[in-house]
Amino acid sequence: MLKAQKVSVLLVCLLVGMLFLVSGCSQKTNDNAKTGDKSWTNVEEREELIVGMCAQYPPFESINEQTKQPEGFDVDLANALGKTLGVNVRIVDAEWEALIGGVNKGDYDVLITCMSKQESAGSNVNMSDAYYDLNEIIVIKKENTSIKSVDDLKDKIVGVQSSTGAEIAVDSLNGLKEIKRYNYNNDAFIDLVNNRVDAVVVGYAYAASQLKNRTDLKIVNSPVGETAEIVMVMKKGNDTLTAKLNEALATIKTNGEYNQAYEKWLKL
Amino acid sequence: MELNFNIVINNLPLFWQATQITLKIAVLAFAFALLIAFIVGVLRSYNIPAIFKLLLSAYVEIFRGTPLLIQLFFIYYGLPSVGIIMDAFTAAVIGLALNGGAYMSESVRASILSVSKGQEEAAYSLGYSKLEAIWHIILPQAFRVAIPPLMNGFSSMLKETSLVSVISITELTRTGNLIYSRTLKPFEVYLALGLFYFIMTFSVVLLAKQIELKEKRWTL
Amino acid sequence: MDVINNLIEIKEIYKSFGDQPVLRGVSLTISAGEILGVIGASGSGKSTLIRCINGLEDIQSGEIIVKGQYMTNRRNSREARKTIGMVFQNFNLFPHFTVLENITNPCRVVKKMNSKNAEIMARTLLQKVKLEDKMYQYPGTLSGGEKQRVAIARALAMEPEIILFDEPTSALDPELAFEVFDTIKLLAEDGLAMVIVSHQIGFIKNLAHRIIFIDDGRISCLGTPEYILNNNNNARLQDFLIRLRENI
C-alpha cells in the first residue's frame, strides 16, 4: 500500500514537472514574439551581415579546392547585397540540417543557400522575395533530337535520382513509359549513355555544374514539374531585415550586379 | 504522434505492383540459382579435370567473397564499359542468380557428401553409370538434406531483392521509400513493408515444412 | 584354358592404399557355379580382394578377367559388373526407395526393363527371399536380416552369374544371421557362383566348394573345406582358426 502511494506521488510529481517545462517553453516563445524587431538595427550597428550556407551545392555554393573559401552564385549575391546595404558580409559554412536552427538561434542573420520556398515552408521563418527560379530540367544524349521539351517525354523511359525534387517533378508527369529511380544522378547518366533510359531529369544547378565538361550529353532547358522559388531565409519576425534585403535585391537586379553573378555561375 | 494506416491502404495498389516485381525477380533468380547450384555442386563433388575444378571454386569463392551490392553494380554499371549492356531486370536476375548459386552450390555439395559412400558403391555394383547413380540414388537422398539450406537460400534471396533498387528497379523496398518520402509516415510505411516481406518469407517457411514432411516418409 | 568354365580369372594383382600394401600378388580362378569361401584375419585383404574383382577398387598391377574380358578401364569394368552381383556388410539399400523400388529401380535404369516387367521381377524375387509382405515399406523399418535379404534379392535382379558377399552377416545378431544364411543356401541350390567373405566358418564349410585363407595380402592356403579346416599344416591358418573358435 505504502509502495503504491509512493509510486503515485512520484508520478504526479513527474507530471507536474513536465507541465511546468512545457508551459515554460511556450512562455519563452511568446516573449520573443513580443520583443521589438531589432534585426536590421543589429546588423547596421555591428556593420556585418552574417550569412549561413551549406557550401556543398555547386554552382550555388561550394568550397573552392584551392582557396578553401566558399564560392558560387549565392556567395556573389550575398556580397553584392552587403555592398548595397553598406555592411560587411561574413559567410559561415554549416551543415544543411543545422541551418534553420542556427538562424532561429541568431547564429546567422540570413540563410542564402539555394533554399526553396517549399523547403523552408514548414519551418515557420521569414522569407525574402524569390531571387531565383530553379527548375528541374531534362538531360539527354547529344545526338538525341527527338526530345525538345517536357512534352516529348511521353512514352519515354525517364531516369531520376530518388528522394529529390526531380523525382517529385517526374512523378507529376503523365504518360511516361517508365520511371527509373536511382540512388545517384551519376548512375542515371550511365544508363543514359548506355541507352537504358531516354532522358534524365535533374535539378538545374546539378546539370549546370556537372555537364559543363561533358560532350556526350546535353540539356533541354524545359522545366519539368513545379518551379522551385529560391529565397533568403530569416528568423520569424525579423521583418526589418527582410524588408532591407528585399530592397537590396531589387537594387542589384537593376544595377547589373545580379546579372554579373548569374553570367558567372548559372548560365549554361 | 498520430498513426494513419490509411496511407498503407491507399497505397496498396502500388505496394502490390512492387511486390509482384520483387516476387518475379526472386522466383526467376532462385530458379536459375538452383540450376547453377545443382550443376556446380555436383561437379565439385566429383572428380573433374583440375582446370574446371579451379574455375568452379574461383566462381564460388568470388561470389561468396564479395558483396552482392558490388556484383549488381558491376553487372549493371560496369559491364557496359566492355560492351555488355542489359536491362536492369535481366541484370538483377543474373546478379542474384550468380550470387545465390554460389552460396547454394555449397549446400548442394555438402548434402551430396553427406550421402554415404556405400550408396554410390551399391549403385555401381548394380551396374548404374556414374550419372545414373547421381541422378537416381545420390541426389534424391541429398535433396532431403539440402531442403532447409536451399529454402533459407530462397528466403535470403527474397530479402536481397531489396538491393536491386540500386540498379533502378522500383521493387518493394524502393516503393516503400517512395511512399515514405511522399507521406513522411515512416512508422506505417516501414511496418507495412516489413509485413509484406514477412508474409512472403513465411510462406516459404511453410512450404519448406511441407516438403520436409513429405521427405520424412523414409529414414536411414 | 576353358573360357566357359573360368568365370573369373585373377592374375597376380597388387593393391595398396597409399604406402600400405593390401594385396601382394593374388592369383585365383573361379569357375561357373563355384562357391568360394574367403577367410582371413581383419585387415588381411579379403574384403579388398572382392572389391577389386568388382572394380570398386583400382588395382596397381595384375589382371582381372571376367568371362574372357579384361577389366582394364571404367567402361568394360561396368560391363563386367553386370555379370557380378555384390552384397555388402552394411546392406547399402537405397533408403529413399521402398523395398520394391530398391529392386525395380535398378531393373529399369540398368536393365532398361519397363515398369511392369520390373515389378514382376521384383515380386518374384521378394517372394524368394520371403519378404513380399514388406515390399511397400522403406528399408529403414526393416530388421538387419530383412535388409540383407532385400539386398540379395536386389543383386539377383541383375541376373548375375556370380555374387560377391562381403561379410554379409557381420553386422547382424547371430539369430538374424541364420535367415541370411538360409537365403544364401537357396542360391547355392540354384547353382549360382558365389564368393563369400565371412568369419562364420561353420556356415562356409558346409556350403563352399573351396576355401581360401588370405594372410598378409596373399593367398596363404587354398583347398576344400575339409583340407582347410582339418588337414593343412599351415601354422598361420591354424592360429587363425584357433583364435576364431575362441572368439565364438
Brief account:
The complex is a heterotrimer of chains A (268), B (220) and C (248). Chain A has helices spanning 2-34, 39-46, 73-85, 99-105, 117-121, 165-171, 185-193, 204-210, 239-254, 257-265, and strands spanning 48-53, 56-57, 61-63, 70-71, 88-93, 110-116, 126-127, 132-141, 157-161, 178-182, 199-203, 217-234.
Give a verbal description of the structure.
The complex is a heterotrimer of chains A (about 270), B (about 220) and C (about 250). Helices cover about 45% and strands about 25% of the residues of chain A. By secondary structure, chain A is of the alpha/beta class. Chain A folds into two domains: about 40-135 and about 230-265, D-Maltodextrin-Binding Protein, domain 2 (3-Layer(aba) Sandwich), CATH 3.40.190.10; about 135-220, Periplasmic binding protein-like II (D-Maltodextrin-Binding Protein, domain 2, 3-Layer(aba) Sandwich), CATH 3.40.190.10. Chain B has about 220 residues and is mainly alpha-helical. Helix content of chain B is about 80%, strand content about 0%. Chain C has helices spanning about 45-55, 75-80, 100-110, 115-130, 145-155, 175-190, 200-205, 225-230, 235-245, and strands at about 5-15, 20-30, 35-40, 60-65, 70, 85, 160-165, 195, 210-215, 220-225. In chain C, helix 3 (about 100-110) crosses helix 4 (about 115-130). At the B-C interface, helix 6 and helix 7 of B face strand 6 and helix 3 of C.
